[in-house]
Each structure stands twice: as C-alpha cells, then as structure tokens.
Give the backbone structure.
Amino acid sequence: MNRQANRFRPCHVRCAWVLLVTFFVSGCGTNLPSVLPSLGPPSEDEEVRISREFRREAKKHVKFVNDPEVERYIERIGQRILAAMGPQPFDYRFFVIEDPQLNAFAVPGGSIYFYSGLMERAKSTDEIAGVLGHEIVHIKGRHMARSSGFDMYSVLGLLSMLLLTRSGAGAQAAGAVGQAVAATREIAYSRQLEMEADTLGERYMAAAGYDPKGSVAFLKQLDQERNLSPVDIPPYLMTHPVTQERVANAELVLKSLGKTEPRVEIPDPLKKIKIIIRLQRHEGDAVLDEYRKLARQNPQDSEALHLYAFAQHMKGQLSEAKDNYEKARKLNPDNVALQRDLGRLYTQTGDFVSARAAFDRALALEPKESLTYLYLGELLENESDLRAAAGAYINALNLSPLWDRPPYRLGVVYSKLDRLGDAHYYLGRSFLLQDEDQKAIAEYERAIKISGENSPRGQVIREELKALRARRK
Ligand SMILES: [Zn+2]
C-alpha cells in the first residue's frame, strides 16, 4: 500500500495500532519500546534503534532456531554478499525463526529474519542468497523510510505485526491474526522498490559468487504458488508481492550479467541445514529413513553417506555415524563440513587425537571459518587446555564479531582460568550482542572494577559503557 492510500485509510492504521499495544503489553508484561517517536520517516540512527527494539520484541514472541550451524549458515551467506557490496551504514544481523511459513523480512537498521519454512522450500543456497540479497537492498536502500511515510513508532509496530502473520483464508478470518495480515499488507513495498531490490540484490549476490539463476528460480516458484492458490498467500508474498513484471525483470538482469562463474559450495550446505530444521521439528525418524534409503541406493556417494551419518549423529547413534562419516571421508577427504562434523563426533566420543586431526584438516581446507574454531574450542575445553580453547574462541570472535556464542564461551573459559576481569568483559559482550543491555552493563561494571579503570581493558570498557548508557536514554 502506498503513502497516498494510507492517508485515506486512517482506521486501518489505527486498528493495527490497537493490536500493537496489545501485542507489546500482553506477551511479556513490558511497556512500549523505549524509542522516541519522531515526525516523518526515521533517520539512520533511529533505524538502528528500530532494529534493536524489534530484536528484543521478536525474542519474546517467536522461537529462533537455536543451532550454531544454522546461525553460521545464514550469516556466512550474508557476509559474502555484504563483502561484495562495499562499506555499509549498518551492522547486519541474520536470524532464523522456527516456523514452517514461507517468509523472510528485513527490519530497517540491519536485521534480517528468515523463517525455517522458507529454508525448507528453497532448492539451493543460491536461492537463499537471492532472497538475502533482496532483503539487504531493502535495508541498505532504506526502503521503509522511503516508502511507508510512517514515523518510527508505526514502522516498529507494523513490523511487529509480521510476527503474528499467518497465511491462508482461515487465518485471515481469525481475529488478531487476520488484522496482523492486514497490517502486514500495509508495509508491502511499492512496485518500484521491489524492482530495485530485485535488480540490485541479484547483481550483488552474483558479485559475491552465487548463481544469479537462483534469484530467478525462487521468484518463478513464488509466482507459480501465487497462481496455484491465490487465497492462501504466503506472508512473503504479502510484503514482497511477486508479479510477472518482477520475474521478467529478474530474467533481464540475469541476461545483462552475461556469463558468470559462481563459486558454488559442493555439496550444497543447505541440505544439512534442512536436516537440522527437521530434527528440531521432531521429524527425526522420517529423516533417518529417508537418508538411509539414499545412502543405500548410492553407497559410493560421499554426500549421501555424509548426510546419513549426520542424521545418525544428531540422533545420538554415534558409532553408526562414525562408520558412515569415515566411509564418506574416504570418498571425499576435502569436504570441510564433513571434517568438522567428524571433529565434533570424536570430541563427543572422547577420541581427542582423531578430533584434533579432523579439525586441523578442516582449518587447512578453510582457514577462516568461525564455526570450526568454535567447535575446536569445545574440544580443547574437553582436553582441559583452557588457554588454547580461549585462543580458538578469540579466532571465532574475530571472524564473526557479531556472533554472541564465541564471547560467551570466552567468558566461561576465562572464569575457569580465574581471569575474572576478562570473564566479565566477554560475558558483557555476549549479552550486548543479545541486546540484553542491563546485563551487559552489570558485567562491564564488574569487569572494570577488577581490571582497573586505567588499564588498557578498563579504558575500552569505559568507552563501551558510555555508549551503552547513552543509548538507554
Ligand atoms: Zn521485497
């Protein structure tokens, strides 16, 4: 809906407002978010605050897929696309919501939310990269500020409606959720901005080494779904309405890119991510059956064996998993993810020498993967080599500075090493990344007391505390 039309439909927006207040107050007992309303579209600074406030609300109302592999998978694609785009005004954060809906959306200021349902429906990582590229352009181009005409309060409110949205005619008739669906339509981007997000998103993902055919394929699939069931519209199609014109435009962009040479990861890591999502949805037995069949049909296929072993591993069948992992490794010793999975498995079974060898191999193949360092740190903690574990976690932190897991592990390891100043500092950082400002401030204050105001660490913390307190005002 465009700005012009909103002026003539004040009731629509007000209805959304009433629901917004209920939404914020009922779920959690907190008050409205501590952001100041402004007149006119939000500024860049305000967008960063919208992003943060929204993350806090989202945490209370939706379940995130809590798995380091999934978190890293989506962040890694995002980082690759961002690196191809050059300097950015925002710190981008990526989240996966556990929900079977086909949905993804961008929040101004740098937060992108994917639903696990969209990841299950995508056929390749290139398709995921296509959606991510599109969403990043909405944020970078500040499309919500340019199109909605709302002040930041209403942007935040309407965005929060997205969390209540369910697709389908039944859902639309069902009270609050139906209103949420209506509110979601309010923030659908204009045709021109959708085209801009498609065009630039496809160019950026291609520049990052993903196959631009993935962008086109996903749009085509959405267009087909829209035609097949016009009543049961997936939420993604409400905020990013797909038209023939968009599909044609994406194909033109593909043509204009000419011959590209994508740097495709083989095997596609999306398959493993889908297994994790299904296991979290308690479809473990079906997953095991499926991959057992695949592995039996293709006994010489390293990927089929690896995925079957991974499903067994996640289901706790460690010795069977080990045998299949090892068979898969013989067929393809250069698969980084397989080496890393073996490292984890051997850590769990107490075979630390084999675990170390597998992680070393993974790092030799790919020296800059924070996930490998995170799991290597776990192994070193198990071996009681706490100093080396801290070193591994610091590497993970440097490679993924916005990921909350490495600083959390560092906090734990430093407290075991009795380096309490460092322990509180890193726990504070982890809380900060989880948007838990109050807890972060408390940890930083403890850290500064122990490290001393004038120590190098003390000075760093003092600056961070100043910034944190200022943003709470
Ligand atoms: Zn869009």
About this structure: The chain has two domains: 3-257, 270-472. The CA atoms of residues 16 and 183 lie 6 Å apart. Residues 134, 138, 189, 194, 197, 240 surround zinc ion (CB under 6 Å). The chain has a mean pLDDT of 87.
